[in-house]
Amino acid sequence: MKTWQVDDVMTTAVVTVSQSASYREVVDLLVAHRFSAVPVVDNFQRVTGVVSEADLLRKIEYAGDEEPRLFDGRRRRGERIKSSARTAAELMSSPPVTVLAGTSLAAAARLMDSEAVKRLPVIDDLGRLIGIVSRGDLLKAHLRPDDEIRADVESGVLRRFLVEEIDTVRATVQDGVVTLTGRVDRLSTKDIADRQIRRIPGVVAVVDELEYGYDDRNILGTGLAYGIA
């Protein structure tokens, strides 16, 4: 069963700007491509920052009032400084929030949420830009056909964790919802199957209708004893 990574859904033809790009050049680029942000790269294609629409709007927000004031907080002072910026290097937010190639979709989604960003530049081990992944890109996993998801359920979960019950369990998939029917020997086996299936890219939900022979939770103690982190 394949674990989907940002490499599988990212855009590789990335539009960038240099650190010396002018304010007007950045505005023209964002408007022309209907982007909300653009990565800033150096001569080695390493990402040094990101310029967003919010960074550019400081010039409008503080027009005629760019000079920092005595009682300005750190954030407000930085915004006023950006309002007088003329190049991408002065405008960009740095250090940039990036993600390494090979990062799972789940990890990328958590990073976007924690950093409140809509897209992430994808970099290699040397910090060079190789792609960009957006929130919409992460949702591509849910465009997978039901038969592909079912194949992953059968090969990656049922045949791996339910070897002894493979002939007594059936999985069907409809619009990404996996329904399990049949019977397993232990409750722990039922829980393992449910948990692992939810990790398959494209799975929307799991309807667990499995019956079980006996409840072995008291023997195992906790869910961690199932051997699944």
As residue ranges, the low-confidence spans are 223-229
Q: What is the name of the CATH topology of the largest domain?
A: CBS-domain
Annotated CATH homologous superfamily of the largest domain: CBS-domain
Strand order of the largest sheet: 1-2-3
How many beta strands in the DSSP annotation? 9
> N- to C-terminal separation?
17 Å
Q: Can you name the CATH architecture of the largest domain?
A: Roll
Mean pLDDT across the residues is 88
Spell the H/E element sequence.
Answer: HEHEEHHHEHEEHHEEHEH
Counting helices, strands and paired strands, the structural category is: alpha/beta
Give the tally of structural domains. 2
Percentage of residues in DSSP E strands: 15-25%
For the largest beta-sheet, the strand count, sense and barrel status come to:
3 strands, mixed
Helicity range of the residues?
A: 25-40%
For the record, the CATH class of the largest domain is Alpha Beta
- Quick one: overall form? elongated
Radius of gyration: 24 Å
**Tally of helical segments:** 10
Core attributes:
single chain; 229 residues; alpha/beta; CBS-domain; 3-stranded mixed sheet; 23% strand; elongated; disordered C terminus
Q: What can you see in these coordinates?
A:
Helix 8 (146-161) runs antiparallel to helix 9 (187-198). The strands form three sheets. This protein has a three-stranded mixed beta sheet. A three-stranded mixed beta sheet has the order 4-5-6. The chain folds into two domains: 6-140, CBS-domain (Roll), CATH 3.10.580.10; 144-226, Histidine-containing Protein, Chain: A. The chain has helices at residues 6-9, 23-33, 53-61, 74-82, 88-91, 105-115, 135-138, 146-161, 187-198, 217-220; strands at residues 17-18, 37-41, 47-52, 99-100, 119-123, 129-134, 169-174, 177-186, 205-214. It is built from ten helices and nine strands. It has 229 residues and is of the alpha/beta class.
